[in-house]
């Protein structure tokens, strides 16, 4: 499937609502469950998504539109959420994510992007040349990747509790 902005917006608009439906008012042991050392809980993932709204998707799209490949994207701190989320509840993070995503999508609309812009290139510090379509496609898939991650992490908390049904539950493998 080729990149299509309207289709992408269908996912990007839904992610905050999806996470809100899945996570709001969960007990803290569910919100902070992990798959082991150095893995992320649902709480940490939501913080990471917030940081992405601030420092990744739209800022990088603007770099592509304003500077093309002449200026590399600023580095993205994949661990910034640990400090930024400190002291906040999961519900607060969900609210913050929803508000920041709404602002991001409003700003995206203001850019008045057209299909002839999809091939514009920027420069990723690790990957080199990337297009605007690739960046926006990655934003969508990044959301979906973290929805899957959150579901998997929560499910794995019951790995032992499901007993023999574990053999039929791919999410636990």
Contiguous low-pLDDT stretches (5 residues minimum) are: none
Give the topology string: H per helix, E per strand: HHHHHHEEH
**CATH C-level name:** Mainly Alpha
The domain count comes to 1
Helix content: 55-70%
First-residue to last-residue Cα separation:
29 Å
Question: How would you write the strand order of the largest sheet?
Answer: 1-2
- The helix-and-strand class reads mainly alpha
CATH homologous superfamily annotation? dinb family like domain
CATH architecture classification name: Up-down Bundle
Q: State which percent range the strand residues make up.
A: under 5%
Integer-rounded radius of gyration: 18 Å
Q: Characterize the main sheet.
A: 2 strands, antiparallel
Count of DSSP strands: 2
The CATH topology: Four Helix Bundle (Hemerythrin (Met), subunit A)
Count of individual helical segments: 7
So what's the overall shape? Answer: elongated
- Overall pLDDT metric: 97
Structure explained in plain terms:
- The protein is mainly alpha-helical.
- The chain has a single domain (5-172), classed as Four Helix Bundle (Hemerythrin (Met), subunit A) (Up-down Bundle), CATH 1.20.120.
- The protein has helices at residues 5-23, 28-31, 42-55, 57-67, 81-84, 90-110, 132-156; strands at 121-124, 128-131.
- A two-stranded antiparallel ribbon has the order 1-2.
- The longest helix is centred in the C-terminal third of the chain and has 25 residues, at 132-156.
- The relative contact order is 0.18.
- The mean pLDDT is 97.
